[in-house]
Amino acid sequence: MYLNCHSFHSLRYGTIPLEELIQHAINCGVNAMALTDINTVTGIYDFIKGCNIAGIKPVIGMEFRSENQLRYIGLAKNADGLAEMNRFLTRHNFDNTTLPLSAPDFDHVFIIYPLENAPSALKENEYIGIRPEQLQKLILSEWKNRQEKMVILQPVTFRNKKEYELHKILRAIDLNVILSKLTPLDFCRDSEVMVNIQRISSCYGQYPEIIANTEKIIEQCNFEFDFKTPKNKKFYTNNRKDDMNLLTTLAKKGLEWRYGKNNAEAKSRMFKELKVIDQLEFSGYFLITWDIIRFSNSQGFLHIGRGSGANSIIAYCLGITDICPLELDLYFERFLNLNRKSPPDFDIDWSWKERDTILEYIFSRYGYEHVAFCGTNVEFKYRSIFREVGKVFGLPKEELDALAKNPMELHATNKVVKQVQQYGMLLEKYPNQRSMHSCGILISEEPITNYTPLEMPPKGFPIVLFDMHIAEDIGLEKFDILSQRGIGHIDDSVKLIEKNRGIRLNIRDTAISKNETRCNEFLALGKTIGCFYIESPDMRGLLRRLNCDNYKTLVAASSIIRPGVAQSGMMKEYIFRHNHPDKFEYFHPVFEQQLGETYGIMVYQEDVIKIALHYGGLPAADGDILRRAMSGKGRSKSALQKVKDNFFACCAEKGHPLGLSEEIYRQIESFAGYSFCKAHSASYAVESYQSLYLKVYYPVEFMVAVINNQGGFYRTEVYVHEVKMSGACVHNPCVNKSEFETTLYGTDVYLGFMHLQSLESKTAFMIQNEREKNGNYKSLEDFINRISIGIEGIQILIFIGAFRFTGKTKNQLLVIARLILINFKPENRNLMLIQEPVKEYELPKLERSEFEDAFDEIELLSFPISCSPFDLLKTKFRGDVLAKDLLKHHKKMVRMLAYLISRKHVPTKMGAMYFGTWIDAEGEFFDTAHFTDSLAKYPFQGGGCYLLLGNVEVDYHFPTITIIKMEKMPFIPDPRYSNAGDNQYKVHQQIREDVSMTHRAPYPQEHEINLPRNKMIL
């Protein structure tokens, strides 16, 4: 009887989570119901499953609304009906048009109009919905004679009075008004609740025809969905046989390319993988990925294939990945095995500048009807909840900030705040808006609108209205088309090297960046600023602690740095064993044989498979089930128990003592959920090495590429510092040398206009384009004549020194600019000045402090270029010790002067602490630790230079200063405001620091890890 139910997928309207809606229906004795969320089908697939379990007949539909006005309700008779509605809504979403008042001609859809919007004539499939409170209108002949086309309409939007208020709050959030400004048309009626089915039947007892019509619709709506059949595009060619023939041919060619003609091990592995791929009918998935890579290569793009796909030798031979699975002993079963029923997941990275070209190819190659981005539900989160709900209750910005930034126990205790908290907590985990998945692409066999309507966000690629979990559930597996700045660093470096030095570098040849002596030296010393994945303070510290001087150690480091691995305590134990290989015993011979590379520690997800296989005797595929079960990926508790029982049974068959097997299983259980895929780590390591190779041998080009890709872990200032340390001469932007991005001429680096935060980007491009078209600017007058720019823009360029080629001072240039522009009219450009010679003005000579330029730069760039921050200090003291000497001062107290680069918040059981990263007066990096008691007395006070006092602790080759005291050192007053006291220290506040906050439980201490370092005595 319920043909119009809303779940919380009716965004900012419905209040009932899907599972609770179904449970509510069970409580009300409902045996059939329709889910009709507003302009979406996001919840229908979970709804179908839930109803089937509950013994309720699911009816699938959609409520069509425009501008908050209900047009009609559509109910699908079958799968064709859903597709009709999806295509209809997609058309209007794409065209951004309002929905028509009358429904189109549907062949497989029932349409229900609300009484107030019912047309005078109805088609065969159309009905009028009448609410219980509207039944008295049937006394009127206008409606009495139309009962043969009426059905029961009892909408469901909320469950109780509190949820009705929540519904109003959601409507106010959606309309961006305070609660008191809502009108009755903005929210639903207070009768939109689900009641016992007998109560509804009794309401319509005098109208058997209306009940019969309702039952007829329910009876004729039979939407069935096959969740088991894959929905992805099946074949790359036309059939499975041709796909396998093509894949085999490509694999054989690739095998010879990668391994030569006589590698028996690689050949055996290739045929083994091909057999599994064929059995699971995944050849099309491999070939589509190969096709995308083939196009990428044809465009000269650099890509990185990573994730578990790098466990496959087929992927390696097809050029999808650059990781040799034989070299690193990678198990194919981690990626694909006969127990896995969903397609494999390839993660492919491109430069952020080239990704859209790849996407355009995929959409055009496989058809816009069959390709879409996966959607995602953006939920109400803690901070956004209190802001959104607080606004509805009319709280001012200051109070909203306090609610959002502070935990609830620190909130004010007045009546309004309590209401905000009460309703805010109800909204936690509710979907707030739909968005686009960052990288997941769906390629379907049938038109994708058979499953969902599509939306067209501003980016220009259509998205489905459900997330990746629902997509996987219905048989649509995503292709991850990712982008990152790290590849942009590499790609742009190679282009800059060719342009600047005339050297063509084949960075795709991974051999050049795995065993370079100088690269390994840089790696072991943590000299990796700018390099993908290995430049953060944590990673540089780990590299030094490990004295990491080879590729395989880097692969391990890329895994153990992950938060989960560190949280499990495995990082500390690995560092200990790496540095003290003689101070532990392997737990069992299998651990030495299979995990010797990682000192008997399960660092990678593949290690779980190895131990299950070689110690427990389980097949590798079952080992992967164990890994997936441990990490909570799609396995029930009963499935995990079954795997566990099987593990112990197999161990007993092999004669292992029960106590030993229990300890090994405990280790698997402790670490499997935290571990990281080895193939993923190896892919990261290759890219890290490529970055490092470029940094070592072509440092200036590499750092300019990092700057142009808008950096990585650090702010631009750090990379500008690094390019200076690499031997370059860095110049401020110049109208005759600079472009939008930073440019390089030999070792002269000219910062790009993009770094002038207050200069409009269109002006920056105009300067560059006009110069390329008509030559260099001859003077300030010539520039003003050729570029449409106001006095504000001119002043920015003058203050940054962009006209220094004229030989005039900034003060002189400002006078000239104002004299020219005071009566200048834009329409006279190209008329007034072009016919007149440049006027020579008699200008006063004004004295300037040598540091005025530095303060101009801080104001416009947020950091100085013409001098070092240390030059701006009032003191000439530069510390007693330099970073390069810290290793000699273990356990000694030192006093240093340093410039703050970044700090990281770290929770501990004793309270919050920070790790700081600094540069000394010579520009070298070093690190500090600030414990809770020290921070209480000597807190960080923003960016700038500090005097530090602390004790040096050398932890496995890596020195850290544990801070006892620190004090921020004063800079000289801004000389530009020598007579204006209030402004003398204003610009100083723009000197930045990088701060990363961490919200997690404290990591365990060494004694809490409980990983034995000796053999068990049984």
Automatic annotation (TrEMBL):
Record-linked Pfam families: DNA_pol3_alpha, DNA_pol3_finger, HHH_6, PHP
Reactions catalysed: DNA(n) + a 2'-deoxyribonucleoside 5'-triphosphate = DNA(n+1) + diphosphate
GO molecular function, one term: DNA-directed DNA polymerase activity
CDD domains, A to Z: PHP_PolIIIA
InterPro entries, per the entry: DNA_pol3_alpha_NTPase_dom, DNA_pol3_finger, DnaE2/DnaE/PolC, DNAPol_HHH, PHP_dom, Pol/His_phosphatase_N, Pol/histidinol_Pase-like
Keyword flag Nucleus: no
Keywords, sorted A to Z: DNA replication, DNA-directed DNA polymerase, Nucleotidyltransferase, Transferase
Enzyme class: transferase
Protein's name in the database: DNA polymerase III subunit alpha
Organism, scientific name: Flavobacterium pectinovorum
